[in-house]
Amino acid sequence: MSRVILLATRNAGKVREIREMTRLHALDWCGLDEFPAVEEAVESGATFDENARLKALHYAGATGLWTLADDSGLVVDALGGAPGVHSARYAGEPRSDLANNRKLVAALADVPERERTARFVCAMALARPGEVLLESSGSVEGRLVDEPRGANGFGYDPHFLVPALGRTAAELSSEEKHTISHRGTALRAMLPRIVALLAQRRGLSAE
Predict the structure, then answer these.
(1) CA gyration radius, the chain
(2) Ordered alpha helix ranges (H), the chain
(3) Any idea what the CATH number is for the domain that residue 36 is in?
Protein backbone atom coordinates (compact mmCIF):
# COMPACT_ATOMS: atom_id res chain seq x y z
CA MET A 1 0.00 0.00 0.00
CA SER A 2 1.36 3.40 -0.92
CA ARG A 3 -0.79 5.56 1.35
CA VAL A 4 0.77 6.53 4.68
CA ILE A 5 -1.65 6.26 7.61
CA LEU A 6 -1.04 8.28 10.75
CA LEU A 7 -1.46 6.60 14.13
CA ALA A 8 -2.96 9.37 16.24
CA THR A 9 -1.07 8.79 19.46
CA ARG A 10 2.18 9.62 21.18
CA ASN A 11 1.70 6.66 23.52
CA ALA A 12 4.66 4.43 22.69
CA GLY A 13 2.86 1.36 24.06
CA LYS A 14 -0.09 1.84 21.74
CA VAL A 15 2.14 2.46 18.72
CA ARG A 16 4.14 -0.69 19.49
CA GLU A 17 1.00 -2.81 19.88
CA ILE A 18 -0.60 -1.60 16.65
CA ARG A 19 2.58 -2.08 14.64
CA GLU A 20 3.00 -5.59 16.07
CA MET A 21 -0.60 -6.49 15.23
CA THR A 22 -0.36 -5.18 11.65
CA ARG A 23 3.07 -6.47 10.70
CA LEU A 24 1.55 -9.00 8.27
CA HIS A 25 -0.39 -6.31 6.42
CA ALA A 26 1.21 -4.09 3.80
CA LEU A 27 0.30 -0.87 5.57
CA ASP A 28 2.61 2.11 5.95
CA TRP A 29 2.22 3.71 9.40
CA CYS A 30 3.70 6.84 10.94
CA GLY A 31 3.23 8.28 14.41
CA LEU A 32 2.47 11.67 15.91
CA ASP A 33 6.08 12.00 17.04
CA GLU A 34 6.82 12.86 13.42
CA PHE A 35 4.56 15.92 13.78
CA PRO A 36 5.78 17.65 16.96
CA ALA A 37 4.18 20.99 16.01
CA VAL A 38 0.66 19.57 15.78
CA GLU A 39 -1.45 20.49 18.79
CA GLU A 40 -3.16 17.74 20.75
CA ALA A 41 -6.80 17.05 19.99
CA VAL A 42 -9.32 18.18 22.58
CA GLU A 43 -10.93 14.99 23.88
CA SER A 44 -14.26 16.54 24.82
CA GLY A 45 -16.48 13.57 23.94
CA ALA A 46 -18.67 11.84 26.50
CA THR A 47 -17.95 8.40 25.02
CA PHE A 48 -14.98 6.50 23.62
CA ASP A 49 -16.59 6.57 20.17
CA GLU A 50 -16.97 10.35 20.20
CA ASN A 51 -13.36 10.88 21.27
CA ALA A 52 -12.03 8.48 18.63
CA ARG A 53 -13.87 10.43 15.93
CA LEU A 54 -12.73 13.78 17.33
CA LYS A 55 -9.09 12.71 17.39
CA ALA A 56 -9.15 11.12 13.94
CA LEU A 57 -10.69 14.22 12.35
CA HIS A 58 -8.41 16.61 14.22
CA TYR A 59 -5.15 14.95 13.25
CA ALA A 60 -6.27 14.19 9.70
CA GLY A 61 -7.10 17.86 9.27
CA ALA A 62 -3.81 18.98 10.81
CA THR A 63 -1.59 16.67 8.75
CA GLY A 64 -3.56 15.94 5.60
CA LEU A 65 -3.07 12.21 6.20
CA TRP A 66 -5.56 9.44 6.65
CA THR A 67 -5.54 8.99 10.40
CA LEU A 68 -6.36 6.03 12.63
CA ALA A 69 -7.29 7.12 16.13
CA ASP A 70 -8.46 5.15 19.10
CA ASP A 71 -9.89 6.09 22.44
CA SER A 72 -9.71 3.43 25.07
CA GLY A 73 -9.91 3.04 28.78
CA LEU A 74 -10.99 1.11 31.81
CA VAL A 75 -14.66 0.85 32.83
CA VAL A 76 -15.15 -0.29 36.42
CA ASP A 77 -18.64 -1.39 37.41
CA ALA A 78 -18.26 -0.63 41.13
CA LEU A 79 -17.13 2.92 40.29
CA GLY A 80 -20.10 3.71 38.08
CA GLY A 81 -18.06 3.27 34.90
CA ALA A 82 -15.09 5.37 36.04
CA PRO A 83 -12.42 6.11 35.07
CA GLY A 84 -13.89 5.61 31.59
CA VAL A 85 -12.99 8.31 29.07
CA HIS A 86 -10.82 9.92 31.77
CA SER A 87 -8.64 6.81 32.16
CA ALA A 88 -5.40 8.42 30.97
CA ARG A 89 -5.81 11.39 33.33
CA TYR A 90 -7.62 9.65 36.18
CA ALA A 91 -5.18 11.00 38.79
CA GLY A 92 -4.75 14.36 37.02
CA GLU A 93 -1.85 15.92 35.16
CA PRO A 94 0.83 15.10 34.32
CA ARG A 95 -0.36 11.71 33.14
CA SER A 96 1.07 8.91 35.24
CA ASP A 97 0.30 5.19 35.09
CA LEU A 98 1.60 4.80 38.63
CA ALA A 99 -0.59 7.58 40.02
CA ASN A 100 -3.63 6.33 38.11
CA ASN A 101 -3.21 2.82 39.46
CA ARG A 102 -2.72 4.04 43.02
CA LYS A 103 -5.94 6.05 42.80
CA LEU A 104 -7.77 3.04 41.34
CA VAL A 105 -6.63 0.70 44.12
CA ALA A 106 -7.61 3.28 46.76
CA ALA A 107 -11.05 3.73 45.19
CA LEU A 108 -11.65 -0.03 45.36
CA ALA A 109 -10.41 -0.44 48.94
CA ASP A 110 -13.88 -1.27 50.32
CA VAL A 111 -15.16 -3.17 47.28
CA PRO A 112 -15.38 -6.99 47.71
CA GLU A 113 -13.39 -9.09 45.26
CA ARG A 114 -16.51 -10.50 43.57
CA GLU A 115 -17.69 -6.97 42.75
CA ARG A 116 -14.46 -5.78 41.14
CA THR A 117 -15.62 -6.53 37.61
CA ALA A 118 -14.32 -4.28 34.87
CA ARG A 119 -13.59 -4.13 31.18
CA PHE A 120 -11.19 -2.47 28.83
CA VAL A 121 -13.01 -0.73 25.98
CA CYS A 122 -11.56 0.56 22.72
CA ALA A 123 -13.19 2.60 19.97
CA MET A 124 -11.36 3.24 16.69
CA ALA A 125 -11.99 5.66 13.84
CA LEU A 126 -10.25 6.13 10.52
CA ALA A 127 -10.63 9.58 9.00
CA ARG A 128 -9.39 11.66 6.14
CA PRO A 129 -9.59 15.48 6.36
CA GLY A 130 -13.21 16.35 7.06
CA GLU A 131 -14.64 12.82 6.93
CA VAL A 132 -14.77 9.73 9.13
CA LEU A 133 -14.29 6.73 6.86
CA LEU A 134 -14.49 3.71 9.16
CA GLU A 135 -15.25 2.87 12.81
CA SER A 136 -14.87 -0.22 14.98
CA SER A 137 -14.83 -1.19 18.66
CA GLY A 138 -13.75 -3.94 21.01
CA SER A 139 -13.76 -4.88 24.69
CA VAL A 140 -12.38 -7.47 27.09
CA GLU A 141 -13.84 -8.46 30.47
CA GLY A 142 -11.78 -8.83 33.61
CA ARG A 143 -11.47 -8.28 37.34
CA LEU A 144 -9.25 -5.86 39.24
CA VAL A 145 -6.60 -6.88 41.76
CA ASP A 146 -4.76 -4.73 44.31
CA GLU A 147 -1.23 -6.00 43.76
CA PRO A 148 0.31 -5.25 40.36
CA ARG A 149 1.47 -8.32 38.47
CA GLY A 150 3.59 -8.53 35.34
CA ALA A 151 5.76 -6.17 33.34
CA ASN A 152 4.59 -6.73 29.77
CA GLY A 153 2.06 -3.96 29.57
CA PHE A 154 1.21 -0.37 30.37
CA GLY A 155 -1.60 1.64 31.92
CA TYR A 156 -3.88 -0.47 34.11
CA ASP A 157 -2.64 -3.79 32.68
CA PRO A 158 -0.83 -4.95 35.87
CA HIS A 159 -4.09 -4.71 37.86
CA PHE A 160 -6.43 -6.18 35.21
CA LEU A 161 -6.86 -9.91 35.77
CA VAL A 162 -8.20 -11.98 32.88
CA PRO A 163 -10.09 -14.72 34.79
CA ALA A 164 -10.08 -17.26 31.95
CA LEU A 165 -6.28 -17.14 31.86
CA GLY A 166 -5.59 -16.55 35.56
CA ARG A 167 -3.11 -13.80 34.72
CA THR A 168 -3.15 -10.04 34.46
CA ALA A 169 -2.90 -8.32 31.08
CA ALA A 170 0.69 -7.40 32.00
CA GLU A 171 1.58 -11.07 32.52
CA LEU A 172 0.51 -12.09 29.01
CA SER A 173 2.85 -12.39 26.08
CA SER A 174 2.35 -9.86 23.31
CA GLU A 175 0.72 -12.53 21.14
CA GLU A 176 -1.69 -13.59 23.90
CA LYS A 177 -2.62 -10.01 24.67
CA HIS A 178 -3.25 -9.10 21.02
CA THR A 179 -5.56 -12.12 20.69
CA ILE A 180 -7.92 -11.10 23.50
CA SER A 181 -7.38 -7.37 24.00
CA HIS A 182 -9.92 -4.62 23.39
CA ARG A 183 -7.50 -2.91 21.00
CA GLY A 184 -6.73 -6.15 19.20
CA THR A 185 -10.44 -6.85 18.69
CA ALA A 186 -11.12 -3.36 17.37
CA LEU A 187 -8.08 -3.43 15.10
CA ARG A 188 -8.92 -6.86 13.65
CA ALA A 189 -12.35 -5.54 12.75
CA MET A 190 -10.79 -2.46 11.17
CA LEU A 191 -7.84 -3.86 9.20
CA PRO A 192 -9.59 -5.74 6.38
CA ARG A 193 -11.86 -2.75 5.84
CA ILE A 194 -8.85 -0.42 5.59
CA VAL A 195 -7.18 -2.74 3.08
CA ALA A 196 -10.41 -3.01 1.05
CA LEU A 197 -10.94 0.74 1.12
CA LEU A 198 -7.39 1.41 -0.06
CA ALA A 199 -7.80 -1.11 -2.86
CA GLN A 200 -11.09 0.51 -3.87
CA ARG A 201 -9.53 3.99 -3.91
CA ARG A 202 -6.62 2.72 -6.01
CA GLY A 203 -9.06 1.20 -8.46
CA LEU A 204 -11.02 4.43 -8.77
CA SER A 205 -7.86 6.47 -9.28
CA ALA A 206 -6.74 4.10 -12.05
CA GLU A 207 -9.97 4.53 -14.01
Answers:
(1) 18
(2) 12-21, 48-63, 97-107, 174-180, 182-206
(3) 3.90.950.10
How do residues 123-165 score in pLDDT, each as one tens digit? Answer: 999 999 999 999 999 999 999 999 999 999 899 999 999 999 9
Question: Which of 204, 194, 201, 202 shows the shortest CA–CA distance to 7?
Answer: 194
Task: Give the E-state strand segments of 18-164 in sequence order.
Answer: 28-31, 66-76, 117-128, 131-144, 160-162
CB of 6 closer than 8 Å to CB of 32 = yes
Domain region containing 52: 4-206
Helix axes 182-206, 12-21, angle to 10 degrees: 60
Percentage of the chain modeled with pLDDT above 70: 96
Residue 133 burial (10 A CB sphere; 0-12, 13-18, 19+)? middle
pTM of the complete model: 0.89
Q: How many domains does the chain have?
A: 1
**Active-site residues: which are they?**
71
By DSSP bridging, strand 4-7 and strand 28-31 are parallel
Number of alpha carbons in the 13 Å side-chain half-sphere of residue 31: 12
